[in-house]
Amino acid sequence: MIKEFLQVLDSEIDRMEQGKQPVELYEPIQYLMALGGKRIRPVMCLMAYSLFRDDWKTQVKPALSIEVFHNFTLMHDDIMDKAPLRRGKQTVHEKWNDNIAILSGDVMLVEAYQFLNQIEGVSLAQFQHILERFSWTAAEVCEGQQWDMNFEERKDVQIDEYIEMIRLKTSVLLGFSMEMGGLLAQVDQGIAQQLYQIGEFVGLGFQLKDDLLDVYGDPEKFGKQVGGDILANKKTYLLIRALELSQGEIRDRLTYWINQKQVDAVEKVKAVTEIYTQLGLKEEVGLQIQSYFDRAFAGMEALPLPQEKKNTLLSFMAGLVDREV
Amino acid sequence: MIKEFLQVLDSEIDRMEQGKQPVELYEPIQYLMALGGKRIRPVMCLMAYSLFRDDWKTQVKPALSIEVFHNFTLMHDDIMDKAPLRRGKQTVHEKWNDNIAILSGDVMLVEAYQFLNQIEGVSLAQFQHILERFSWTAAEVCEGQQWDMNFEERKDVQIDEYIEMIRLKTSVLLGFSMEMGGLLAQVDQGIAQQLYQIGEFVGLGFQLKDDLLDVYGDPEKFGKQVGGDILANKKTYLLIRALELSQGEIRDRLTYWINQKQVDAVEKVKAVTEIYTQLGLKEEVGLQIQSYFDRAFAGMEALPLPQEKKNTLLSFMAGLVDREV
């Protein structure tokens, strides 16, 4: 069933307008969208819709607005973060240049709205409500990216600030994906908010899982360099908590590795991972992830729908908990 | 009358949400919007609306979507063009940095859609048509900017390519401003297209006037450095035509000044201006500008409306023809 959602989405992505001029503007869009990814957001949107209605294939274009928006944020974030690789391939600003990545990204944001504009069968008020929620969420995602950049300049980031940052940068869009599925099915306000919260909790668990996999992921399966966050001194949940918790000799080791300019990458990743493990952070983050997903599952439980309607989404969510990639 | 449009628009701009967090994201928006400018686009939108209906004050927020979008393009274009100044003040990427200008710009594009979303009193189909036309135009403006950047790398740009570039980069948004005024007043498709064409011709005349003023503007009135395009070897109508027309000794002088690395700015501007004048380009561009505005005025003439309805817009357009700033 999940496969079917993915197939329909990917074939619609393949059909996105091609060959438009100037090519410098449109090739990067095609390139980035074709790099793949899990398409989690449109899948969650369509699955949320499917809780209430069966004709989810009518909603593929609106659902894709979220995927196009997400990829737009990747294109621009990669410029800001000076990231060389995305999904194992050159980022757009590396393959072309910064200016092209800025402008192509701008067009992608416009295209996201064009997909959203293909919503049918709702009232003007319903449509404008979806549009307002989309724009609100989009602005929040930008806010999250700005906080993330600000945090990289600061030494005193607190864990609750970090959680708020990932909520904005990642979770609100997963929340909105679920909410939009409901709004397209014309559910009432209360249900839409429940869906949003489920998605938001999934998003928080999902992002912390990312932090965890970066350190404890299986290099064979992970697909990108394990320890990338450690090498970049990226302020993840693990590093922020390690800075909060560590004392004495462990603190000295942590400080040493953070400040060391010329390091052997393998050694640093090994050493910092050991520190995290000694501080019990593998378990702590694991529990946090579980706690967020528990709340998401409780939200699903509370939805006034027959169990069999919920199974597809529940098994998709379970897959996110267990993911190794 | 024009003054009243401007006052209402500016007071609405002042009311745009302030003090939102993180400040790095929202201060640049406020800063750029407060730099002023002629607000030509929303004024034209409201004036076009006023051709058909009197309650133009109900349409201020939708009209502002175009101004916010225009300022978003300025913020991003200035990064790409590495422009230090905008309206005599530091550009956003200079005052803050590139990343902040990218991300603030992104939020501005979202805000443009939020203003658009405040359209009232139309049907879903009418609203979605406006949204589609807005997005289409937005993508075209990005295309224009990409062509503009491509042209800077090329030596063989033809005048018709240049006209198509400025049509995309500048004119389509003025066209859409007029069209949207009509669509908000729920005119029929034919009238909407007539309005679009009027705005498009105004836009072409307006941009060529810019090219002309950069060279022949009165330094006392112009507000920015006369000859800026000449110093940057910017491929304007004048330079492209000069490269097409010049031969022999004049051509040698032109080539000399284009390729000279270390030049006295005043000398170069004086010399190239002389070349343009010798080639008769001041007159030629003047005639082109007149021709575009003539077509815009003919379009106004053809609108099936009583003359007194048209006077405000006509006098506004006449002001654009005669402008010295």
What does this entry look like structurally?
Chains A, B: Keywords: Magnesium, Metal-binding, Transferase. Chains A, B: Belongs to the FPP/GGPP synthase family. Chains A, B: This is Polyprenyl synthetase family protein. Chains A, B: InterPro entries: Isoprenoid_synthase_dom_sf (IPR008949), Polyprenyl_synt (IPR000092), Polyprenyl_synt_CS (IPR033749). Chains A, B: Its cofactor is Mg(2+). Two copies of one chain form a homodimer. With 325 residues, chain A is mostly helical. The first copy, chain A, has one domain: Farnesyl Diphosphate Synthase, CATH 1.10.600. Helix content of chain A is 75%, strand content 1%. Chain A has helices at 2-14, 23-34, 40-50, 60-80, 92-95, 98-116, 124-152, 159-184, 189-216, 219-222, 228-231, 237-245, 248-259, 265-278, 281-302, 307-322; strands at residues 85-86, 89-90. Chain A has a two-stranded antiparallel sheet. In chain A, helix 3 (40-50) runs antiparallel to helix 4 (60-80) and helix 3 (40-50) crosses helix 8 (159-184). The model of chain A has no long low-confidence stretch (mean pLDDT 95). Chain A binds chain B through residues 21-22, 24-25, 76, 79-80, 98-100, 102-103, 105-107, 109-111, 113-114, 117, 122-124, 127-128, 131-132, 135-136, 138-139, 142-143, 145-147, 149-150, and chain B through 21-22, 24-25, 76, 79-80, 98-100, 102-103, 105-107, 109-111, 113-114, 117, 122-124, 127-128, 131-132, 135-136, 138-139, 142-143, 145-147, 149-150.
